[in-house]
Amino acid sequence: MASIQRDEQWTLAKKKEIREAFKLFDKDNKGQVIQEEAPTIMRYLGVYPSEKDIVKEIIPAMMEEDMQTKTIAYDKFEAKMLEIISAGTYEPDSEVQ
């Protein structure tokens, strides 16, 4: 029971963190950002994927069905970020620091 509560608290805290970071780039308050801003937001959140992974896997997974818009909606960004952060994927390289 305590583990579930802790997981819920972690999720809520991460969602708040993701929303705050996303809002920094959502200047029009429309719940979307241009795709080129997503990697910057990700790095702000401590997620450091390679350019190849960003272009080939992450951005396409977050794009709206209409690829012509070139924007990423908050709900898709949040879902993908929670997946990436919880998996511990794309951690910063400790040797670089």
Topology, please?
Elements: H1 2-25, E1 32-34, H2 38-44, H3 51-62, E2 71-73, H4 74-87
Antiparallel strand pairs: 1-2
Helix pairs in contact: 1-4
Helix percentage range? 55-70%
Number of helices: 4
Count of extended strands: 2
The low-confidence runs, each spanning 5 or more residues with pLDDT under 50, are none
Please report the distance between the alpha carbons of the first and last residues.
38 Å
Which word captures the global form? globular
Helix and strand pattern: HEHHEH
The radius of gyration over CA amounts to: 14 Å
Largest sheet: 2 strands, antiparallel
Query: Averaged pLDDT, please?
Result: 87
Strand order of the largest sheet: 1-2
Specify the structural class.
mainly alpha
Please tell me about this protein's structure.
By secondary structure, the chain is mainly α. Helix content is 59%, strand content 6%. Strands 1-2 form a two-stranded antiparallel ribbon. The longest helix has 24 residues, at 2-25. The protein is globular and about 45 Å long. The protein starts with a helix and ends in a 10-residue tail after the last helix. The mean pLDDT is 87.
